[in-house]
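Changelog-adjacent note: as of this version, every example in the card shows the full chain rather than a window. The one below runs 468 residues end to end.
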Amino acid sequence: MSTASQAALRVAILLCGLCNLPVHGDSLAPSAIISKQRITAKGREHIHGSVSGRRPRPTKEFVYVYDMPAKFTSDIKKLSMEWHPEQYDYDQVLHEHFLNSPARTEDAEQAQLFFIPVYLGRYYNWYWQQWSTPGNPWEIVTDCEPRHRAGSPECWWEKWMWGKGNTSELVREALEYVQKQHPYWSKHDGADHVMVFSYDHARCDMALTNQLSTFGQMFSIQSYGDLTLTNDPTVPPIIQRWQDNNYTWGQPRSWACFRPDADVLVPMYYNFEPQDLVSPFGSERSITALLRFDYKRGDGKNLVEHYGHRLRHELIEYWRGQPLEGSQQGPKSSEETDADMARSIFCVCPPGATQDTTRMFRAILKGCIPVTFFRANDLPFARFLGVPYGEFMLNIQPDDYPQLNDRISRILASPQRLRHMQDALVAYQKNFLWSGGSEDGGVIANVERELSIRATMLHDTPHSTFSR
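Full-length structure tokens:
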């Protein structure tokens, strides 16, 4: 490709990344991709093309997959798992995909990117779950320090931090292996290398004790896109670029868990097939708003969740005081919740350990409009691929949760607006399916598209989809 062509490609990619303007207040900025008119069948074809047609298809054979020692992959799969949600297994899913992907090259000299497979999700989970009561992962009952009562939140925190430390060491060992055994890291200080950090807070869960020099300029694939440390509106979102002199773990000025200008965001893993998709128009929507979540006081989670438990409690109390007509509240099994989502118009998706939740993506796949409470957050495939969440989601600032009923009621009172949101939801549902390969669309295809952008341009910084 000529220098002029490369420059043109960079400009085109940057402009596409800017299709979504920042959010102001509690609303999402209109997207340049979908017009405000009702979306016709022809319009849907245009929307689908906005993710695939306007961005470069992944270059064939551009990702080299390191052959790591068994201690980083296959040995971890043998660990006994008392309790391990499959949503954290996308490090394995992506590794298995790239081993057989058309994007893989076996010639490291020709590679544009280098994939470092380490099964951190299971490893991290195994370390701190060893001390749990069978069937109750949050109750730590064995080997607590003398000053920490067995079963106490303090003992849970102790083991949680132990797990972080040991997982951090595995990350350090993996990167040390790559740097010592192969010559490619040093060429760009790891800027063309990628690792998957599949737990809630990404590097801040799985590499907490490592320093900046350990990572170099390596980027990650992860689900964590928070641009703020807490939902406290007095703490400003992160707006500056990633710099050596502002790298900190604990201060909100620079949040080391997420690099907005480099990291690739994905939904956490869920096993949905194309036949599991439900159109907003494909079933009776008899539930106005679905609130399928709970709040428990006194468990270990309260020590670490900056978002979910406070807001979940407030939303439940709000619903009990003034339930929206036709709404339902209360936890159920995953299977029952999925079935209820397929019968709901709106699905209320409060934060969990982070601002976003897998519940939001499951709602999308079931044709239910997610109601989110993001203060400043990036979401998968928005920053670089232009997926316009504002067209098919309702976002409310956390402190404005008492507006929930009014905001939903206003949309219900406008059939044209509701239809527009549901049409947009139909158009983008397939982007959030994990099943299928790079040629089938969905998460895998979008990951490869984003990686192809990183291979061309690692340091451009489009605006966030969600900012204050």
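Structural remarks: The domain at 3-57+270-439 is CATH 3.40.50 (Rossmann fold).
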